[in-house]
Amino acid sequence: MVRHAAAVHEPLRWVAGTLARRRSPASYRLRENGRTILIRHRSLDPMTLDQVFVTDREYEPPPEAAGSIERLGRALRIVDVGANVGLFFLFALGRFPGSTVLAYEPDPENAALARHCIELNAIGDRVTLIEACAATSAGEVAFAAGKSAASHAATPTESALRVPVVDAMPELTGADFVKIDAEGAEWELLADPRLTGARAAAMIVEYHTRMCPDPDPRAYATRLLESAGYRTSNPWHNPGAGDDDGMGLLWAWRPARS
Question: What whole-number distance in Å separates Cα of residue 105 and Cα of residue 117?
C-alpha cells in the first residue's frame, strides 16, 4: 500500500481508499508523468499499477527489445490487446514519445474507465479504443466480465454476456510494438500464421494456462513466437499461482540483420 501511495500525488487519499476497499473508481495523478489514472481499490487495479509503474515495471523493454525498437528510428504504432483501465497505454505514451496506441478492451466496465482515462488526459488524438475482443476472425463471444484485470472468455459454466469480437491480426501485424495480456485469448493470436509476417520490432505477451492447447504454456508461447521469427526472453514464470497456474511473461523481438 505504501509504495502505491508514493506513486501518486495524493498518497493520503490513496491510503484512505485502500483501507475503505472502495469499488467505485477514484482518480489519482501519477508522480512519474502527471497523467491521471482511475483505480478501483477493491479490484486488481492496484496490482496492475504495481506491474506497470511501481515495483515490476514489466513493460520496460529489456536491452535486446529496446534495441530492436530504437532501430526503427520513428514514433511507434502500438497495439494494446487487453487495455483494462488504460495503465499500459499511459506508460507507453510516456516511454515512447510521439507514439500512438490502438487498444482493445472487451469488458464494458474496464472499457468505460479506459475511455474516461483517455478523456481526462486529453489523449484522444493518440489513443483509439476498440471495445471488443481481439481475435483472428469477427463475431461475438460469451465473456465473463466484471473481474477487472481477470475478465476473460467464459467457460460454459460461468455467467456471461455477449461481447463483439474483431479480427485484430491486420492491426497487430502492422504495428511496431505489441502488448498482449488477454487472459487466454493470446493463444489464438499467437498461433495465427499471419504472425510470421508481423513487422513489430518487439512484443510482450503475458501467457496463461487458460485456453492453452499445450500442457506447458511457457514452452508453447516461446515456440509460437520463435517460429514467427522472434527471439525471446522469459523475465518471470509462476508455475503455481492457483487458477493462473503456469502464467508468465515473454518478451519477443526481431533480431538485428547482420
Answer: 13
Instruction: Give me the residue label for grid cell 501467457.
Output: 207
For the residues of 6-38, what is the DSSP string, one character each?
HTBS-HHHHHHHHHHT--S-EEEEBTTT--EEE
Cβ atoms < 10 Å from Cβ of 226 = 12
Find out whether 223 and 187 touch, Cβ atoms under 8 Å.
no
- Which segments within the chain are labelled E, that is strand? 26-29, 36-39, 77-81, 100-104, 127-130, 133-135, 139-144, 152-153, 161-167, 177-180, 202-207, 231-238, 247-253
Q: Residues for the chain: how many in total?
A: 258
Q: What is the pTM of this model?
A: 0.95
- Residue 144's CB is within 10 A of a number of other CB atoms, namely 17
For residue 230, count other CB atoms closer than 10 A to its CB.
Answer: 24
Which tens digit of pLDDT belongs to each residue from 131-149? Answer: 999 999 999 999 999 999 9
